[in-house]
Amino acid sequence: MPDLTGFHPDSYRDCEVYQSKIKKRAIMFRNHIKIAFRSLKNQPFFTLINTFGLAIGMAGSLLIGLYIYDELSYDKMFADAGRIYRIDMDIKFGGAEIKSAETAPPMAAALQRDFAEVENTVRFRILGSNLFRSSDKSANIKELSTTYVDATFFDMFGLELIDGNKETALKEANTLVMTRTAAENHFGSINVVGKSLLLNNEDTYVVTGVMEDLPKNSFLKDYSIFMAMAGNVASRENIWGSNNYFTFVKVLPATRMDHFQLQLDGLLEKYILPWAQKTFPGMTAASFAASGNYIRYHTIPLTNIHLHSDNQIEMGEKGTIQNVYILSFIGFFLIFLACVNFMNLSTAHSLKRAKEVGIRKTLGSNRIQLIVQFLTESSLISFASMILAVIVAFIALPFFNDLAGRTISIPFTEPLFYVAILLFTMVLGLFSGSYPAFVISRFIPVETLKGNGFKNGSKWNIRSMLVVFQFGIAVFLIVGTLVIFQQLQFIQNKDLGYSKEQVLVISDSYAAGQQVNAFKHEVLSLSAVKSATLSSFMPIASARSNSSFFREDAMDQKFAIQMQTWDVDHDYMKTFGMELIAGRGFNNQSVADSTATIINESTLTTLGLSAQEALGKRITEDVELGKPVFYRIIGVIKDFHYESLREDIGALGLFLNKSTGSMAVKLQTDDFASAISSIENIWNEQAPGQPFNYRFMDDAFDTSYNEERRLGNIFIVFTSLSIFIACLGLFGLAAFNAQKRTKEIGVRKVLGASVSQITFGLTTDFLKLVAIATAIALPLGWFVMNIWLQDFSYRIQISWEILAFAAFLVILIAILTVSYQSIKAAIANPVKSLKTE
Amino acid sequence: MITIIDLEKYYATEEVRTIALNKLSFKVREGEFVAIMGPSGCGKSTLLNILGLLDDPDGGSFIFNDIEVAGFNERKRAELRKHNIGFVFQSFNLIDELTVFENVELPLIYTGVKAAERKERVDAVLEKMGIMHRRKHFPQQLSGGQQQRVAVARAVVNNPKLILADEPTGNLDSSNGNEVMDLLTELNEAGTTIIMVTHSEHDAKYSHRIIRMLDGQKVTENILADYKSSVAP
Ligand SMILES: Nc1ncnc2c1ncn2[C@@H]1O[C@H](COP(=O)(O)OP(=O)(O)OP(=O)(O)O)[C@@H](O)[C@H]1O
Ligand SMILES: [Mg+2]
């Protein structure tokens, strides 16, 4: 009869042997853990420093890890995100190259029509902040981020409506879809389909849909109201020269993007040239290229936009991959520092245990067992640290979010999180335990029993190298922090060419309608007000577009000037304290001034004229309608920084036109509060029911450097953490060193060494290492931070003072850390220390 | 050279108060070789620490070279010590991380001797002790007898007037021990005062006088050899 169970007597015995083997292993394992616990308990100082240091390092890197995970997750939640691209454009048309995420209105239609691979397209035309009033309310509420969008929006990004029909929503002009939060703000409910809203006191819009708030880690996160593109007349025009539409395409699966690119390159010939020839008859691809101009379209994957776009203007908040790299670097080194501490302290401590190891070895313990014993210890510490780290990270998270400007949470419900964290902990435990385990298990019994774990002589051991490494990182991070803050300081104090102090900007002054001039007039009559100006253009980084201009005597595309055109009133320059270097300012009495312009110095350079030569010359905008309007240059204004200091100052022309978007008020009082309340009173009289929003120019300026400031703050926190961890390690090491050298110190004292000589000796041993670290890290920090500074057109020089200060700081910290142990060791009574022998 | 009168030293631990030295008095003249003997725990090492200015007595008087030094603070004692006293210990107390040369050089560094002169003097002493060929070695690479010779070299390199030795042969076999005793005798004959604690009657015979102690007090004194002071008494 065949044996169906598959067992013979023999295999049964095998099994038994196997089981007893497992049992034996289990007992061994338990034994290892027991001994590990005991030995950790016997060395509370060492265990505490190790656990604490590792926990801090882990908590720091956990936070950074979550931050990076969040940065990398941008826009990945959209259905088909992998197939969505945006059409970007590099354009040079006279002047400087512009990198733009916005393209022309007919682009989307052309892609749909001509490209077989295109499944869908959608365009956004950003409207910025607008005032809305619901039919139930009397007051306006401001929405900061609104946009026109094509009706394909929902299909494109796989978005659903909570209320309304996504097939028909946004098809008709004057319809809009709003987010849940916006609906609640305006109506106090989300069942609002069919209700109407008044936009900027003028146009009525009907709500056709309500959607969930958009994900925090998406380019749409700030947007709350989407209005039907049908209401935007310009979106239907066949103009290839104005680029104001963010255009996304979804391609079919398995589309070859290199093919796609070739077709994009063909657009120039097919559409742009025929269109441009209306203005410049005879223009050809060759003549266009020969003049040094170009228009290059390319695609950027949706999921790359957040970190990889280098366009001046983006729809959402821009992150940079550089910051992700910098933070990964910091996170990695934080954890590495903590591991180094562990290795250092464990090996230092092993000297104390050398005798134990020697005895164990003589008694027959083999090397593997010893290694396992030490690894068990390090794993226990690693696990304890991880638990502590998660608690610390959890407590620190709100502060971190504040610092980083994010809304990250610890994914406690995500099983993958636990897997990752456990794996990480194990790797860390084994990694940090491996070096001490290896070193200790190598001890030769005879030597260790003699009481000396290590051979004499070699002072340049791995432990010294690790200390050098730790402090090198600390120095590097200090240099980084100092440079970032000095650059921010520099930006803040830079002479911008205009005065941003004491300037109050009242936004949405257009809401006062016809009364806006009366409002300005009344405000000017206040004694606290020196000057006031109405304009939609404020000298601060913001989304603005360029236009092409031509000199009257050189109406050739070769001489096109890309220039910003700002509509201002005659008080503009006075209010911002801008300086004329030639000519005169606007006169609001002069009719001729309505066709006059004041250009900045950068425009002079592109025109190739001196200030005096430019006066009286006329320029005209690139219009295809044949009958150009000429503007006479009546003045030249000193360059002022109106974009971020990352950019060079571009060409700019001021035009005397009614533009009532905001009103800037220059105050001449220190009592801001009462000045503001007087202005608010006037506003409420002139524009009843309209929100009064204001901010100070210098605050607005500061917020445009938020990303840098965040980076600076993150740097400060993690630099401090890494210094703290390094010092913890140094402190522990100094303690063990002093302990190990008790006898030596005693002998030296007997031979006549003074307390200060001993302290000095013990301290300089460590300082030498720190000094080496500094010498290596300073040039490195200088080099890397110079790369970072390249991003700014206007930047500081890294001075030797910064480097000296970093060196001074780290050495001071090291001295303070070490000297406690050194002094303690130096004042000990030699009679006692020699007695312990 | 040394006069102690009613010297007292107590050790107060948690429960017991030990009287380590109990009104101990004696004199040591310049150039003398004195051995101190007594059972374990009778206070010999305590006495030597006080004589070596490593520790301060709790009572009584200690006159060193006509100066009352009882009550001196740590800094003053250290100053006096490094110029006048050399130590030899039972456990050698060499610094493991330093070579033979560097170990012997240490006292000269602390008394501020210039590098060139240090080298000369250390070499001279090493030559005299017969360990010149070992000058680059580390203590762990030497035998016990060699280590103790290095310790003696280190004790005398500063030309101290007084050498204090606490069981210098305690860790050595008899032939190595005899060598060390011969060295000390030589030094004494050259004029150095020596006070040595020992358990060995054999070693004690090298001295001029044996002071026997019990429970922190002197019990007897045997004069072994005629001692003629180089200085008028
Ligand atoms: N630091 C101390 N704290 C408490 N008691 C001490 C201390 N040092 C010495 N004693 C006690 O003082 C007494 C004298 O000790 P000492 O070391 O002088 O003895 P000893 O004569 O040198 O002994 P041995 O021959 O064993 O070296 C002993 O009872 C000892 O226990
Ligand atoms: Mg003793």
Number of strands of chain B: 10
Number of separate domains of chain A: 3
The stretches of 5 or more residues of chain A where confidence is low (pLDDT under 50) are 1-7, 449-459
| Measured distance between first and last alpha carbons of chain B | 10 Å
How much helix, percentage-wise, in residues of chain B? 25-40%
The CATH topology of chain B is given as Rossmann fold
Describe the protein.
Chain B: Belongs to the ABC transporter superfamily. Macrolide exporter (TC 3.A.1.122) family. Chain B: This is ABC transporter ATP-binding protein. Chain B: One of its GO terms (molecular function) is ATP binding. The complex is a heterodimer of chains A (837) and B (233). By secondary structure, chain A is α+β, with helices and mostly antiparallel strands. Chain A folds into 3 domains: 326 residues, no CATH class; 160 residues, no CATH class; 201 residues, no CATH class. In chain A, the strands form 3 sheets. A 6-stranded mixed barrel of chain A has the order 4-5-10-7-9-8. Chain A has a 6-stranded mixed beta barrel with strand order 15-16-21-18-20-19. Chain A has a 4-stranded antiparallel β-sheet with strand order 14-22-13-23. In chain A, β4 and β5 form a beta hairpin. The N terminus of chain A is likely disordered. Chain B has 233 residues and is α/β, with parallel strands linked by helices. Chain B is 33% helix and 27% strand. Chain B contains 7 helices and 10 strands. A 6-stranded mixed β-sheet of chain B has the order 6-7-8-3-9-10, with helices on both faces. In chain B, strands 2-1-4-5 form a 4-stranded antiparallel β-sheet, with helices on one face. In chain B, a hairpin with a 4-residue loop joins β1 and β2. The longest helix of chain B is centred in the last third of the chain and has 16 residues. Chain B is globular. Classes of the chains: A alpha+beta (837), B alpha/beta (233). The interface between A and B is medium-sized, with 22 and 25 residues. Bound molecules: adenosine-5'-triphosphate and magnesium ion. The site of magnesium ion has 2 residues of chain B, from α1.
